[in-house]
Amino acid sequence: MPASAGVLATVERMPDRPTDHAGRVRHWEGVYQRNAVEAVSWYQAEPAVSLALIEALGVPRSAPVVDVGGGASVLVDRLIGSGSTDVTVVDVSERALAAARARVGDDPRVDWIAADLFTWEPDRSYGLWHDRAVLHFAAGAEVDAYRAVLERAVGPGGAVILGTFGPDGPEYCSGLPVTRYDAAGLAALLGGGFEVVEERTEAHRTPSGATQSFVWLAARRRSS
Ligand SMILES: C[S@@+](CC[C@H](N)C(=O)[O-])C[C@H]1O[C@@H](n2cnc3c(N)ncnc32)[C@H](O)[C@@H]1O
């Protein structure tokens, strides 16, 4: 199935949309330099939907978890706090990772990787791939690159959680156009090798009081 299957709306590219690694680093480092981590629109004090879906998937505490584009999210704090022993946070912004690391401390259970998801080459397999609000920035060949990295990182039986802006969500985030998905679009992106476990919608309340519509998909990679 083509990467665009099930996609509800793709906004025209902005002329200055970063299309290479250096551009993405520049963009996201700038975002985290200009804004406090609690002030960005995607900030949430509690990653409630993520934790509920992790529970629904029955991910064991010992499973290696990767939070891709995790930024300064508190998901890593909550996972470690509830007994997870192996958490990796990947982000293109070293500044975002540093903010999270300053909170969590140098914990041997956490691996921090500054990398671009579209070129990252994971050297191990994860039991859970978690993405909140990163996939929707991918366009064209980046979506294919994203899926290739995911398939390399998640082996048979592994779990995947994807959270993106929904059909009536914003068309832009942090100055960049996004692709909005419904649950069928996310399932189509993963393809037939994954079994859908749960779908959710969420109205995310931003720090400035706006509401953003999110769609979530929890899935498991089939064994064959
Ligand atoms: C909207 S924020 C979401 C952050 C986090 N997942 C959360 O829920 O708080 C998007 C994050 O993805 C990161 N990001 C964007 N493009 C990326 C890429 N190509 N590779 C790795 N990280 C990326 C940004 O630096 C940023 O931290």
Q: What can you tell me about this protein's structure?
A:
- The protein is α/β, with parallel strands linked by helices and 224 residues long.
- The protein is built from six helices and eleven strands.
- The protein has a single domain, classed as Vaccinia Virus protein VP39 (Rossmann fold, 3-Layer(aba) Sandwich).
- It has helices at residues 21-34, 48-57, 75-81, 94-104, 141-153, 183-190; strands at residues 7-10, 65-68, 87-91, 110-114, 126-132, 154-165, 172-173, 176-177, 179-181, 194-205, 211-221.
- The longest helix is centred in the N-terminal third of the chain and has 14 residues, at 21-34.
- The site of S-adenosylmethionine has 19 residues, from helix 1.
- S-adenosylmethionine binds at residues 24, 28, 42, 69-71, 73, 91-93, 96, 116-118, 132-134, 137, 173.
Question: What tags apply to this protein structure?
Answer:
alpha/beta, binds S-adenosylmethionine, two-stranded antiparallel sheet, 224 residues, 7-stranded mixed sheet, 11 strands, Rossmann fold, globular, disordered N terminus
